Amino acid sequence: MIGLRVLFRWPLAVLLLAVACAPPPAPTVSPSPEAPRAADPPPPLGKSVIDTAREYLGYDYRFGGTGDGGFDCSGLVATVFGRHGLQLPRNSAEQYLWGLPVSRTQLRAGDLVFFANPDGQVNHVGIWSGDGQFIHASSSRGVVEDSSASRWFRDHFVGGRRVGLAHQEERSDRRSQPVGSW
């Protein structure tokens, strides 16, 4: 009879040992209704920049213009980004030195797109608005949103740049190499 008693106690001892060694259940904590919530992230700078640039559609072209009376291409870019706290240089060749290089396939709304004359000198800038479109100050039509698919823009594209608050102080000390073409 002693053998049977030991036989029945052994499984009971193993079961008790397993239960005693198991970790306690994880506490469940429900958020209190008064707990502060994380603030919603601000809208992306790109969309805000495009919305601001679209406010100027229809303005006249004016060489050296930065607002009242019209814009030239770099004046439009400097004004739009200035309204978002970014102080960019005042001409397209200097703006081309700011931010991070972006190829045509990597362009996002708010990126700058640059074009050059036949000698390769940057002489025009616009703001990429997405879906193959960009906003710029055209010398013949004023501030417009155009397709990048037109031959002139396709043939003269030299690259894009991504500028933002994090890139405010980033500036190349040398001219950047073109990063793509249409």
What does this structure look like?
Helix content is 27%, strand content 21%. With 182 residues, the protein is an alpha+beta fold. The protein has a domain at 45-167: endopeptidase fold (from Nostoc punctiforme) (Alpha-Beta Complex). The strands form two sheets. Strands 3-8-4-5-6-7 form a six-stranded antiparallel beta sheet. A two-stranded antiparallel ribbon has the order 1-2. The termini are far apart. Residues 12-43 and 166-182 have low confidence and may be disordered.
Highest-level CATH class of the domain at 45-167: Alpha Beta
State the end-to-end distance: 93 Å
- Arithmetic mean of pLDDT: 77
Q: Which structural class do the helices and strands define?
A: alpha+beta
Short overview:
The protein has 5 helices and 8 strands.
Note the topology.
Layout: H1 2-21, H2 45-54, E1 66-67, E2 70-71, H3 73-82, H4 92-95, E3 100-102, E4 112-116, E5 122-130, E6 133-138, E7 142-147, H5 151-156, E8 157-162
Antiparallel strand pairs: 1-2, 3-8, 4-5, 4-8, 5-6, 6-7
Descriptive tags:
8 strands, alpha+beta, globular, disordered C terminus, endopeptidase fold (from Nostoc punctiforme), 182 residues
